Every structure is written in C-alpha cells, then in structure tokens.
Amino acid sequence: MKSILTLSLALASLAGATTYPLTLTDDLGRKVTLKAEPQRIVSMLPSDSETLCAIGACDKLVGVDDYSDYPQQVTRLPKMGGLYDPKIESIVGQRPDLVLVSKYGKIVESLAQAGITVIAVNPETYEEVFSKTLVLGKIVNREAQAKNLVTQMRRDIAKVEILTKNAVKKPTAYYEVDPTPYSIGPNSFMGVLLTKAGARNIIPASMGDFPKVDPEFIVKANPQFILGVDAKTAAARPGWSSMTAIKSGKALALPKGLDTIFSRPGPRMPQALAQMAKIIHPELFK
Amino acid sequence: MRSDVQQSEALTPAAPVAKSRWVWPRTFLLLLLLLSAIVFGTGLGSVNIAPGEVLGALWRGLASQFTGAELISNDVIVWQIRLPRVVMGVLVGASLSVCGGAFQGVFRNPLADPYLLGVASGSALGATLAIVLDWPRALIPVSALVVALLSVAVTLSLAREGRRFPPTRLILAGVVVGSVLSAATTALILRGEDRARQVLAYTLGDLGFSGWRDVLTVLPYAALGCGVLLLLARALDTLQLGDLTARSLGVPVERLRLIVVIAASVATAGAVAYVGIIGFIGLIVPHMVRLAFGASHRILLPLSALLGGALLVYADLLARTSPLSQVGIVTTLLGGPFFLWLLRREKEI
User: Fold this and answer.
1) pTM attached to this predicted model
2) How far does A13 lie from chain B, in Å, by closest CA?
3) What is the DSSP string of B183-220?
4) Is B197 within 8 Å of A214 when comparing Cβ atoms?
5) Do residue B45 and residue A238 have CB atoms under 8 angstroms apart?
6) Residue B45 has what DSSP assignment?
7) Which of the four, A5, A32, A242, B274, has the lowest number of CB atoms within 10 Å?
8) How much is the pLDDT for A178?
9) Using CA atoms, how far apart are residues A191 and A169, in angstroms rounded to an integer?
10) pLDDT digits (tens, 9 = 90+) for B184-212
C-alpha cells in the first residue's frame, strides 16, 4: 500500500516535472536559460521568498534580501542587502545557481557578468501574483505545488469575497501607503484587495496605481475610512479633523503586520484580504 | 562711519537713475502679480472654488478663530489647506529669493544662491535627520538651522585666508561642503527606507501638508533673516564697487559677509525646514528682477521677495493641478532652461 502511494506520488511529480534546460522570458524582457533545476537560490524580493517557501522550495534558498522576513525559516538566512544597496559580493559568495530579482534596481548586469543566472520575477498586478507563482513553480520544478497554491489562494479569496459582495453598504476608503501622501489606485493589486474587502476606493483609476495625492482631494472626498494613518496623526493634519472618518473613529493605522502582508504581492494575499475585510465589515465576521 | 556710507551712496553706480523712476509702477505690478497668485492659488486646485466662495470661506475662517465655529466642506479646503499652503509658498519663495539676491551681491557672483556655502544642503541634512529620527515637527527647522550654521562654519573655516574670505575660495569650499552634505542626506534616506519616499519627496521640494502651525513656525525665521538682509541692502550696494573700495568707504567687508551668511542661513533653514529643497527660485528670481529693475539692492531685495513669493505660489498651483506633482520639480523644470537662456544672453552682451 505504502509503496503504491510512493509510486503514484513519484508519478504525479513526474507528470508535472519541469524539463531542463528551461528557457523563459523574464520581467525585464530578457531570454534566460536554466541549464538544470536550481539548487542554490538567492531571492532579492520578499514576495518571491514567500512564494518559494509556500511551494516547498524553501530549502533551496541560500540567501535573501534584507526585507524578506517570512516564513521564519527565511529570517535565519544570510541577508544580501536591499533593492538599492544589494551586497553583490555576498551574493556571489553564496555561489547561487539562480538569483531572483526585481525588475527595478541595478543588480542584473553585475551578477550576469559574474556568470550567475539572474531572473527578474516581480508580480505587480493582482493577476500577476498568480501567474508569477506559476512561473516560479516552473523555474524550481514545483509546478504541481504552485498550481495547488494558486487554487488554494483563489478559493480563500473567494470565501471572503462572497461575504463582502453581499455587504449592504460599502464604505468609501482612503488607503495611505506613505505620508507624502501616496495612495493606491483601484487597479493596483492593493487596490483590488481593498475593493474585494468591500470598500469603495476614493482614488479613481485615472490617477494611476500608486498616485501622489493632493491632500485637499482627500478632504473633499471625505472617506468613511482612513487606513494607514493613526487617528492622532490624521487629525493633526491641516483641515483633516473635520473629516467623517476621524470623527467616527475610523482613521486607523493598520494592525501590526497587516501593512506588510497587504503590500506584499505573495501567497499571504488571502490572509491580508480577510484581515482587511474584518476591519471594514466587522459585522460580516461575527 | 555714517558719513562714509552716505558718501558711498553718491558713488554707487549700481542704481541707474533712469530706472528708479519706474520702480513704483513696477513694484505695483509685482504686488498685483503676488495678489493674483494668492487669489488663484487659493481658488484653484483639484477642487475649483469660485472667487466669491473663496472670499466667504476666508471670512468664515477668520471669524471661526474667534467664535470657534466649525468649518465645513470647501471652507476647510480654502482656510485650512490652501491658504496656509499659499502663505507658505509666499514665505519660502520670498526667503529663498532674498537670500539668493543677497548672496549674489555679497560674493559678487551671479551663480550664487542659498545653496552656496552649503546653507541649503546643511538645512536639508538637518531636516532629513529630524524626519528620519521622527522628531517632533517643531524641531525640524531648529535642526535644519543648527546643521546649516555648522556647515557654514565649516565652509568659512575652509575658505578662510588670514582674516579674509576670498569669494572664489568661499564658493569652492561651499561646493565641496554642499556635496558632502548631500551625500550624507542620501545615505540617511537609504538607511531609513521606510520613510524613503517621504524624505525623497522632501528633497524634491513639496508644499503639501503645510498647515497654519508650520506657517507660524517658519514666519519668524523668514522675518528675521530677510529683515536683516533688507537692512543691509545699502552696504551690499557699496560692496559692488569691490572689496578694497568698499573697505576704504568704511564698510566692514568681512563682518558684512559674515552677517549676510548668518541671516541668510536663518531664512533658508526656515524655508527648507518643512517644504524641502526647492530649486532655482533663489537663483533666477534676483536675475529676473535685475533685468527688469536694475541692480541696486535696495530695489532688488524687496522686489525679489515679491516676485519670488508670487512665482512659487504659481509653480505650486501648476504642481498640484498637473502630473508634475511637486513644486520643486516644477521650479527646476522651468528654472533650468531660464537659467541657460540667461547664461547665453550674458555671453552675447
């Protein structure tokens, strides 16, 4: 019985196995060829680190960027710097056979010169979170796991969405990414999550995905929720104390950790959505 | 000493008599420009508000200071968001322009501006430090001023030659100190990555979120700094004759330089504290005034204040109604080409 199980598992993984050499076009538009299944991977993107771990390739990681902090296993790995100050020498020192990078920053050239395979995989839109998960699955020979993860994520998201779709009232919300102030447009992946959480984003799509917002626009829109700014800070801003969200106590900094998950296009997106939906529609989660 | 200064006045060729006849009408014109900037700056934006409604909002805003009545809707936008932003624009534009004019005079160098001597980069470093360390808002200009004065002290000690501060050495030392300070600011920005965009916006110059409290904090810096510079206008005129002549006419040249630098540091620290680094205003406004009105500092400095204030408010209006989004980007985009044109023009003459 046990041997049959083992055999069928082996067959199943064989069925979804990636064939190397694998050639693909990455997010920088470069054609990259992987000669064999990568075994020593450095991930320079927190979302890629999370995805790799979620599809069972966590043990392939030999280094991560400074901001990768989930799951726990990742935090014990050597830190390789950030987007703008990568520690190229430390990366090379890990002798990786693959480095996953963002399409921003200037790391590709120098690593490529050192003869290291570099692939830019950075999900930005909501749908890309799923498609890039599949791409990562293909790259590290975990296609079946990646497909399962995507199915699971979509299912978990749908569970929340069913609740919020039927919400009687959808409050207007302003989400602040940083106090310059920058916000999120409805087409950004965070904007999609905000809408799915049952809120109406005050930022119109025409303003772009991560627009710098004129403060008077926010005051004029007078949202029912202000997310990402604590009440005290918000009330201290010129003209804000008279806004509905502040008077009704619905200006809040996000609970610890939620701001990180919410802004990370990775496998914890359903979790972020569920938490956000609870904040906006507590009545639906009783 | 007093008679020396009066004598120098008679000798000063810097204020052509022919042009001084036009000073009042042109002052009036600039006043109108400033006034129109305030009116448009307060009425237009992402929400357009009719002039009548603006006036009503201003009245209700003023009245609410005494009655404590709460403002609603557009009144909030006009009184608590736009007007302080506009007033801040006037203060900052005026401060930077007056400092620019005074620097150009005291070092007799047309390229001088508040960025010379590392004043602005010092202020920026101080303010960035305060932002990254999350200090209380009122400490931002203080920190800016302290670092600005420190950087000026370093610049002056580098440039010192006995008891004198030769202009060329001053400017060279200023460039070096300024670069080092900018590098330090950038390093701070990279370390405080959580606040990176906030600090980056700051280093690009931004008037957003300027409230009445900020205006009242910056006002004394602007008033004190610019006030002293305006009082020194006559002495600056005399200095245009050259250090030797000015000294023989009784102007304490070295002390004058020092006072101008300190006064300008005070005004620049205030200007840079909350709104960040706004490029080119301090450089080009004095040139525009000089082209139109002549070079006497008694005319140049006050008119630079008027034009600088008006220009910055218009630039901010353009910034917040266009995708350029930040006033510092607008002033640099408009100021750069103007400055190049100025350079070409000077060459032809």
Assistant:
1) 0.80
2) 41
3) HHHHHHHHHTGGGHHHHHHHHH---TT--HHHHHHHHH
4) no
5) no
6) S
7) A5
8) 85
9) 18
10) 988 887 776 666 667 777 778 888 888 89
Neighbours of B50 (CB within 10 A): 10
* Structure-token pair, residue B341: 């044109």
Nearest-angstrom CA–CA distance, A271 and A281: 15
Given a cut of 50, whether residue A161 has pLDDT beyond it is yes
Indicate the Cα dihedral angle A223, A229, A233, A235, nearest 10°: 10
Residue type, A81: G
Residue of A102, A206, A214, A218 best to disrupt the B interface, most CBs of B under 10 A: A214
Helical spans, DSSP H, in B205-280: 212-231, 233-239, 243-248, 253-275
ipTM of the complex: 0.72
What separation in angstroms does the CA of A89 have from each of A38, A77, A111, B169?
A: 20, 16, 9, 41
**Pairing mode of beta strands A98-101, A41-43:** parallel
Token digits of residue B317: 């209006």
Q: What's the full length of chain B, in residues? A: 349
Query: CB-hemisphere CA count at 13 Å for A95?
Result: 1
What is the DSSP code string of B66-120? HH-PPP-HHHHIIIIIIHHHHHHHHHHHHHHHHHHHHHHHHTT-TT--TTGGGHH
